[in-house]
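Page 42, continued from yesterday. The earlier attempt failed because a stray header line got pasted into the input along with the sequence. Redoing it now with the clean sequence only.
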Amino acid sequence: MYQPKYTITDSLLMEITELEQNRTKLELANFPTNTFKDLMKKSKAVNMFHLAHMIGVELTIKDAEKAIEGKKISTNDARGTILNNFRNVMEFVRSDVTEAHLETDINLILHLNKILLTNWKEIWDARLRTDSNEIEPIVDGWLQMRDKNVSMGEVEARSSELLFWFKTNHGRIHPLIRIAVLIFEMIRIAPLKYLNQITIISLVDLLLYKNGYLNQTFLPVVREIDLHNKTNLNVWANIIESGDLTKWIEQFIADMNNSIKEDKEKILGLMSSDKNSSSKQPFLDLNRRQLKILRYLQTIPTVKREDYVQMMDVSAMTAFRDLNDLLEKKLLRVEGNGRGTKYLLANR
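This time it went through. Structure tokens are written below.
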């Protein structure tokens, strides 16, 4: 019987407590319907943007927003199809079907995998792998973490034991702890022939949504996975050596808490009047567009001038002046030249 090894530390309890308090504040906010829809749409677009980044597809936030509205993403390989399918996964996760009682079992994982494989592979390719060498490495940056000792025939048994533990501890163990454990162990098992990483991400998105951590916080979970991917890989590698999941659970929940805490102020700020917002003293004499791009670049690695034009709805000359001012104040730096020029935070 599967039983994870971890310790409930004081810091973990503090992070969970603070996270739940921040979530409650957002749940109590009375968002207008249009604001709620806009926030949900923005969250899905940020998810799409970061998944594209994870699999090596260049996509602007504006392109991601158009993709969420139904525009197809085209690439010269399967990645465009996979991104379009991930949009459909997000729609499924946020549908009435997910609000109903869905069992977290092998069938659910296979269903998510089937959606992701649509128009790329055949229906029967959405299945558990039966051999440790059968797995396909396409767009899977976590494959290095899988347990290569999982023998033929063990995949389904280990997956079933893990999911049984997840379900039977509902109400006994905090849902975020259970989700963190599930992420690590699913990565280790790598149960599918295709798209293990994106299927696991889709499952995490679904479980966080069902447990109320996305539908009022509007947390783009793929952003958190992408931004902390390198750190997470190091933490997971240490767990493989020690077998103790404590550090990973602490890391996962702390990252979630920090993100919800930061986003909370911005989201609740939408409820404030423009008068109150305009009364604040600008930072370093920066305008709102410049402040926005600085916040944006804390989560997104780089931005091009044409992205700035689209995001801020300004002319190319205004974009040039804004960005050049940030360069002169040593808040940004550039990489590349000509049409390939990208802007990023000076301390990165």
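Notes: Residues 210 and 344 are 35 Å apart (CA to CA).
Reminder to self: strip header lines before submitting.
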